[in-house]
Design a protein that fits this description.
With 100 residues, the chain is an all-alpha fold. The chain folds into two domains: 1-29, no CATH class; 36-80. It has five helices and no strands. It has helices at residues 2-8, 12-19, 36-49, 55-65, 71-80. Helix 4 (55-65) crosses helix 5 (71-80). The longest helix has 14 residues, at 36-49. The relative contact order is 0.10. The mean pLDDT is 87.
Length: 100
C-alpha cells in the first residue's frame, strides 16, 4: 500500500479506494509486549494471595512494590485470566430470632 501511495502520490483513502480495500486493513497489527508473561504471572500470584482483592487493589500493590503498570492493562489481564470474582453477598438478617 505504501508503495502504491508513493508511486501515485495519493492519499491512503484514495489508494484504498482504487485498490478496492478497506482502510482498516492497512492498520498495523499490535504486537504483544515482551514482558506480558512476567506481568501475567505476577498478577495471578497476587490474585491468589489476596483472594478478595480486585484489579484496582492489585494495581496499587504492584505500583507500590515497584512495577510501573497501568490499571487498564491489569484489568485486561485480570479478565483474560478469569480472575474476576462475583460480588460478595451481604448477610441476610434472620427474622426467626427476633419474633418473640
Amino acid at each position: 500500500m505504501d508503495k502504491v501511495r508513493e508511486k501515485l502520490g495519493v492519499s491512503e483513502r484514495r489508494a484504498c479506494k482504487v485498490l478496492g480495500q478497506h482502510r482498516s486493513v492497512q492498520r498495523p497489527v499490535a504486537q504483544p509486549r515482551l514482558d506480558e508473561d512476567i506481568v501475567t504471572a505476577a498478577i495471578i500470584a497476587l490474585g491468589r494471595r489476596f483472594g478478595r482483592y480486585g484489579y484496582r487493589r492489585i494495581t496499587a500493590i504492584m505500583n507500590r512494590v515497584g512495577w510501573r503498570i497501568n490499571h487498564k492493562r491489569v484489568e485486561r489481564i485480570w479478565r483474560r485470566e478469569g480472575l474476576k470474582l462475583p460480588k460478595k453477598q451481604p448477610k441476610r438478617g434472620r427474622l426467626w430470632l427476633n419474633d418473640g
